[in-house]
Amino acid sequence: MKVKIAFCTLAAAAALVGSGCETHKHHHAKISKEQATQIAAQQVPGGTVKEGELEKEHGKWIWSFDIATPGTANVTEVHVDANTGEVIRKEIESPSDEASEAKAEKKHKKDKDDDDEKDEKK
C-alpha cells in the first residue's frame, strides 16, 4: 500500500512539473495561442491548422503553426511573433521537407539529451 501511495505521489509530482514548464513558457507570449491561430489561419485561406506551439527561435518567442494547404499534400508553416502578433515567416513545405525537418529536430533533441546526460554525470 505504501508503495502504491508513493508511486501515485511521484506520478502527480511529475505531472505538475511537466505542466508547470509548459505554463511557464506561455508567460513569454503577449499574444494568446487562440489569437495567433486566427492570425496564422488567415495566411492560408481554406487551410486547416494541424499543429501549433510556442517556441523560442533565434532568441525570439514565436507561435509556430503547421497548416494543411488545401488541394495539396503540402503544409504551410506560419510563424507569428508571440509579442506583437506580426507574421514573421510563411513557408510552404512539401512532405519530404517536413520529413527532413522532423529528422533534424530529432537529431538535435538527441544531441541535447546526450549533452544533458554528460552534464549530470560530472
CATH class of the largest domain: Alpha Beta
The residue fraction in helices comes out at 40-55%
Mean pLDDT rating: 79
Q: Examine the coordinates and then state which fold CATH places here, giving the name of the CATH topology of the largest domain.
A: Nuclear Transport Factor 2, Chain: A
- The strands making up the biggest β-sheet line up spatially as 1-2-3-4
Give the CATH architecture of the largest domain. Answer: Roll
Low-confidence stretches: 3-22
| Helix run count | 3
List keywords for this structure.
122 residues, Nuclear Transport Factor 2, Chain: A, 2 domains, 4-stranded antiparallel beta sheet, 4 strands, disordered N terminus
Describe the structure.
The protein is α+β, with helices and mostly antiparallel strands and 122 residues long. The protein folds into two domains: 1-29; 31-121, Nuclear Transport Factor 2, Chain: A (Roll), CATH 3.10.450. It is built from three helices and four strands; from the N terminus they run ααββββα. A four-stranded antiparallel β-sheet has the order 1-2-3-4. It is flat, with a radius of gyration of 18 Å.
Would you kindly provide a brief summary of this structure?
With 122 residues, the chain is α+β, with helices and mostly antiparallel strands. The protein is built from three helices and four strands; from the N terminus they run H-H-E-E-E-E-H. It folds into two domains: 1-29; 31-121, Nuclear Transport Factor 2, Chain: A (Roll).
